[in-house]
């Protein structure tokens, strides 16, 4: 089934499918979703649905997956689709994966944030228009929604999640960081910089399940050791978090390698992953059999 048909429940006027296609072992659609910002009034997003079998798409949980910088939605999609499909085939609970475009123009190192000058409004777009466009008339409960990111996307996933504990239940930063790294002056003033600092939100971190991953040989000065450092902060606060340190550096190979353990780790509500409702069977009345002795039939 092509995903364009499955997305028939999209809210009218919120977005429009740009194209749909088969992708490896799932189905993929590209949406164009309006955004309340100057640089990108329309943003693209790819939505990947795994093979459904007899499952109802509208009950599947949703994971929003954020790319790094420089990066693109397609770069993360290419790294995760195949290992996720394999994990689902092996018994992990399936989910819909969403790959938004978080690039910016004026502040090209977007940090997946709203810039102080409002030229980038990516966090607002992520938490309003994007959710409405992807989930349509079947808006998920936060227990059926998670956010994941790689590199800059790992920071974005942590920060957007911490800002919106009402929207997400699980946060998965992969090779991310938990400090402000504003290279292009997107954050102006003390208040904005404090707002963008994950350490200022440790009090709400207990609202989430955390899966932290980082390549053991990651050479990036900003990132090396960040997963362990954040895990330690959470652990000191008695907040349960899973730490995965696979072999590798700062690469999509690391992203691919953690998809199976991540898919197994994710916990979804019992209402997720439901079969399609049975199609009502049409019963027909038996065709009357004409009497063999027509002489006994009363005349009209």
Specify the number of helices. Answer: 9
Classification by helices and strands: alpha/beta
Helix/strand order: HEEEEHEHHEHEHEHEHH
Note the overall shape. Answer: globular
Q: How far apart are the termini? A: 54 Å
* Overall pLDDT: 88
The percent range for strand residues is: 15-25%
Radius of gyration: 24 Å
Low-confidence stretches: 1-14, 287-300
Helix % is 25-40%
User: What's the β-strand tally?
Assistant: 9
Q: What spatial order of strands do you see in the largest sheet?
A: 1-2-3-5-4-6-7-8-9
What's the story with the biggest beta sheet? 9 strands, mixed
Question: What attributes does this structure have?
Answer:
single chain, 300 residues, alpha/beta, nine-stranded mixed β-sheet, 9 helices, disordered N terminus, disordered C terminus
Summarize the entry for a quick read:
The protein is of the alpha/beta class and 300 residues long. Helices cover 25% and strands 18% of the residues. It has helices at residues 3-6, 73-89, 122-127, 129-135, 152-163, 190-195, 226-236, 252-257, 259-265; strands at 16-23, 26-34, 42-49, 62-66, 96-100, 145-150, 170-174, 209-213, 241-244.
Notes on the structure:
This protein has 300 residues and is of the alpha/beta class. The chain has nine helices and nine strands. The chain has helices at 3-6, 73-89, 122-127, 129-135, 152-163, 190-195, 226-236, 252-257, 259-265, and strands spanning 16-23, 26-34, 42-49, 62-66, 96-100, 145-150, 170-174, 209-213, 241-244. The protein has a nine-stranded mixed β-sheet, sandwiched between helices. Helix 2 (73-89) crosses helix 9 (259-265). Residues 1-14 and 287-300 have low confidence and may be disordered.
